[in-house]
């Protein structure tokens, strides 16, 4: 990855240099209005902001790929107690990582591990079973389950087909609102225990949930190959070659997002003809966040660039 070879720092340095030229021109308007200096027109400045916006956005978007490469795509396995979550995790990992028991609430904490499927790394998270309970420890585990849902890119919601529909729908009231921006795979487990007619009836529950639906039997390893294909489809990871530079550091990503917000404010300011001092402030903010990554934070470089590039006071 080019980030490890210095490509990341080089790209950011290039962007900062363009911003430096940009803000120098803007501040010339503010600080030296009486000087005979040829400024770039607003259209050219606007085109430059578009270029910088595209580059920063491309770097920020590469974080999804970089994070997947570095840590694995986070996949939360959720569902009611005793739905077969731990059995599925062990099957996917091909080892006895989680304790499997008929006793409800056996998994009270989060269990994580990573597995490679066709070259793509997935970080599976087996969570505590969700149910109505007064047990303090189990309740804490369920709260962690909801936290992990928020952190996951993909959610495998396991439903025990032997569970009454009314109970599933009651449980769904606390789960569905947390899945709005997630790629959800609805897994109907223990499919081997029900006749076809009953399976078809339950397939259409929770119509409000946009999710692919699959009948499986984790215990008998039915349709697990199809599940793996659905996971790869849900991951939808772009080819590495599409990105010159890949961002894997969370702090870098957060700084890029803030820099992107700032440069977009500059662009909007140019569109509505906002005052140059506000435009200058947003450019400086964008440079600051890029500088947080590269270590190039200086309050004197703008003025120095003005005096080195333009004949001021002569």
TrEMBL record:
Record keywords, A-Z: Cytoplasm, GTP-binding, Hydrolase, Magnesium, Metal-binding, Nucleotide-binding, Potassium, tRNA processing
Pfam families: MMR_HSR1, MnmE_helical
Signal sequence residues: none
Domain TrmE-type G intervals: 72-236
EC number: 3.6.-.-
One Gene Ontology biological process: tRNA methylation
SUPFAM superfamilies registered for this protein in UniProt: P-loop containing nucleoside triphosphate hydrolases, TrmE connector domain
GO molecular function: GTP binding; hydrolase activity; metal ion binding
Cellular compartments per GO CC: cytosol
InterPro entries found in the cross-reference section: G_TrmE, GTP-bd, MnmE_dom2, MnmE_helical, P-loop_NTPase, Small_GTP-bd
Protein name from the UniProt record: tRNA modification GTPase MnmE
